[in-house]
Amino acid sequence: MKAMKQSTLAVFIKAALFSAAGLSVNATAAEESGEDKATNSQLEVIQITARKRVENAQEVPVSVSALQGDGLDAYSSAGMDIRFMNAKIPSLTVESSFGRTFPRFYVRGLGNTDFDLNASQPVSLVVDDVVQENPILKGFPVFDIARIEVLRGPQGTLFGRNTPAGLVKFDSVKPSQEFDGYGAVSYGSRGAIDFEGAVGGGLTDTVSARFSMLVQDKDDYIDNCVPEFGDSIDQCKLTKDVLGGYTEKAARLQFLYEKGDLTALLNYHVRDLDGKPIVFNANLMDTGTNNIRAGFKNDVVYQDAASRATQQVESEGVSLKVEYDFDAHTLTSISAWDSAEIYSRADVDGGYGASFLPNFQGPGVIAFPAESADAIPEHDQITQEIRLSSNFSGDFNYQVGAFYFDEDLIIESFSFDTLAGGIQNGYAIQNQQTNAWAVFGSADFTLTDELKITAGLRYSDDEKEFFAERTQGPFGSGTTEGSANPSDSHVSWDLSAAYKYNRDVNFFARIANGFRAPSIQGRIVFGNDITVAKSETINSIEAGVKSDVLDGRGRVNATVFYYQMDDQQLTAVGGGSNFNRLINADKTTGYGFELDTEWVLTDDLLATINLSYNNTELDSPGLAVAVCGQCTVTSPTFEIDGPNGPEKRALIEGNSLPHAPEWIANFTLRYTKELENGEFFAYTDWSYRSEIDFFLYHAEEFTGEALFEGGVRAGYAWDSGDNEYEVSAFVRNLTDEQVVIGGVDFNNNTGMVNEERFIGAEFKIKFF
Fold it and tell me: Is 478 exposed, middle or buried (0-12, 13-18, 19+ CB in 10 A)?
């Protein structure tokens, strides 16, 4: 049937987005979207920039996975933040004890559980060619993204500091002369509303622009039930809708200048989040097990400080990427400034009262109250990269460049007397200044028509100046101060080979060295120690095959790897005097494999099947950490004399790394069928993550059960005039499986659970 050329709704969305971007609605109609699609029943060719050049992913000698298109749309449904990537890619997990604001990435088991706001991570996040170092910058929402790439193994040559485990790389959709845009609105469980949209096109013959925005809103829905002193849990005072909500706004504005051999891309991005922190549940696990306690409800908490919980984040940044093509060479400059501010206050113990007040009853009673807040009032990150890349048509090409990083960070930590109504009783401030620079080079050699060699080298220099001071000590602990000034330099390298066995099969092998600069932990609002972890280094070897099979209807990529990390930086959290400390393990080893496959089962049915195995082991005889107060520790333990009496320590020799599952598997299936004047589609995805430890030691309660989650998205898409329309319904966590995904070990058996089932519907329009 014939439809009107342009609906009133389409005109409205175009006008609203273009008005915000400062563009005109009257633009030349674009050709089909630039997304690569399977043609003639063959899989698409995936182009990536893992080595800072546009290359076919099948020919790059690196273990890399890309996420884009339908999979990316489905995973990010339901207002999900960046944690939606957890277990969606082989050897990658993501978790957070801050909720939407502070993601922690793990690749091949290597990551960092440190929850301080200056925590460094061995997995780097690069967004639009700019490294996002501070953990709050890493939580920027995912919208209008063309592709996500995950590079496994050390990436210390081209991407530099703090990439010994790997790299997660986001590339947003860029402006072009072609007019296009989209708008999508969804509504789902608990009253969640999400809007996402973008519009772009040419302003002049040489300047184009693109404006993207995201608005997510969810009201508080978690009730708080707190008994009065002496009351039973059945007599608790119920306060409705105190936790669980958020309002998230983010936008990105880009201008692209293209004239002759010169291109310049200006990118401004901003974020504002007003919400509540992740929910902590006291005594979540039954003693001696990791089972969630009977009667647990994910929309009810038992806290005495829930009414004061808040989380507010603001961040912004600007970058300028300039490239000039000299025919045989391309000169690239990337200048960027980013800044983040946060204030997050939570009832960290997740409960109420205290064990020394025995008249309290019910599931929320805790050993002692712990209400705290952390803030970044000031933060500035400046980065500058410049590189020269050759464009020779012969058997040799290279890249050389330099990188500069400067960060100034202030952190505030607060504690509060919950039993006195939340009066502040502790305050500490940290200031950290980081300066780093590097020079690097990489060269590609074509030895034969089948064999190519790549070699890279980088010299890095890193220095930190740190000062911390406690001016108010909780419970009369007094004041203290301290400082640290660690520095180090290192030469990272890699050598890889790619062998083209035939047109469809490529073998590769790679050895690489990576480095993470010294880290500092000065969270002294409770403890007195400033700890410094010295540099960690890694040597890694991997080999694999990348193949297209069945005449392009299938793709099988497989990698095996082994690594040894020396002086791995670890975070120990526990009671006594060991509240939060950095330590180094002598040696950590890991080995395993990754398997990425894609299949065109029929002209209407596409599937992916991915699998990874990671075995990690700490080899550090005698290294011991503090343990939980009420949990069942199964690691070997001994006691030491602490400032407040005997303290238990656990030996961690032979343990696997925290949040390092041995197995990750995921499966997707997409079905499409022409129907009437449009297309019906159905998409399902399932992911599995095996059992994990939350901490460095083993404990029954703090062992996370295997997590198996699935989602479904189905709908109908059709064209009308110049526009494409789509309506769909979706479900995330289809089986509503609830498991413990993280814990707080210094107080009682407090934990966090994964997101509950989410059901929603979406309407989307694309215009050209």
Answer: exposed
**CA triple 77-79-82, angle to 5 deg:** 90
* Alpha-carbon span 134 to 143, nearest angstrom: 20
> Nearest CA to 320 among 228, 418, 386, 407?
386
* Integer Cα distance of 85 and 83 in angstroms: 5
Alpha helix stretches (DSSP H) within 33-157: 69-75
521, 571 contact by CB (below 8 A): yes
Beta bridge partners of 409: 379, 432
Sequence-ordered list of residues with C-beta below 8 angstroms from that of 717, at least 6 positions apart, any chain:
678, 679, 681, 724, 725, 726
Q: DSSP secondary-structure letter at 76?
A: T
- Residue 370's Cα: distance from chain center in Å? 27
Tokens representing residue 558 in the block: 């497989």
CA 651 – CA 124 distance, rounded (Å): 29
The pairing of beta strand 166-172 with beta strand 207-218 = unpaired
Cβ atoms of residues 666 and 610 within 8 Å:
yes
DSSP 395-435: SEEEEEEEEEEEEEEEEEEEEEEGGGTSEEEEEEEEEEEEE
Beta bridge partners of 329: 390
d(CA 127, CA 103): 14
Q: Nearest Cα to 663, choosing from 594, 563, 760?
A: 594
Closest-CA residue to 71 (of 127, 123, 169, 147): 147
Structure tokens at 438: 């590097």
The two structure tokens encoding residue 333:
């400059």
Q: What is the mean pLDDT of each run of 10 residues along the chain (768 residues)?
A: 38 41 39 41 78 83 86 71 88 89 94 90 94 94 92 88 90 96 95 96 97 96 75 67 95 97 98 95 91 91 92 97 95 98 94 74 79 96 97 94 97 93 95 97 95 96 96 88 96 96 96 95 88 96 96 95 97 66 96 96 94 97 89 92 81 96 96 93 95 95 95 94 94 94 86 94 94
| Closest C-alpha to 444, from 396, 477, 406, 402 | 396
**C-beta of residue 106 within 8 angstroms of C-beta of residue 135:** no
**How far is the C-alpha of 59 from the C-alpha of 519, rounded, in Å?**
36
Cα–Cα distance for residue pair 271/253, rounded to 1 Å: 12
Question: Who's near 200: CB < 8 A, 6+ residues apart?
Answer: 21, 23, 173, 175, 176, 179, 180, 181, 208, 209, 210, 211, 254
Nearest CA-CA partner of 277 in 86, 101, 82:
101
What is the C-alpha to C-alpha distance for residues 539 and 511, in angstroms, rounded to an integer?
Answer: 7
* Three-state secondary structure call for residue 59: helix
**Reported pTM:** 0.92
Burial of 51 (0-12, 13-18, 19+ CB in 10 A): buried
**Structure tokens that stand for 430 in this block:** 């940290």
Nearest to 370 by CA among 352, 387, 356, 385: 352
Question: Distance between CA atoms of 484 and 567, rounded to whole angstroms?
Answer: 19
**H, E, C per residue of 235-266:** HCEEEEEEECCEEEEEEEEEEEEEECCEEEEE
- For residue 161, give the nearest of 405, 387, 336 by alpha carbon: 405
Residue closest to 82 by CA, chosen among 373, 313, 319, 253: 313
Please give the single-letter amino acid code of residue 344: S
Burial per residue of 606-643, b for 16 or more beta-carbon CB atoms within 10 angstroms, e otherwise: bbbebbbbbebbbebeebbbbbbbbbbbebeeeeeeee
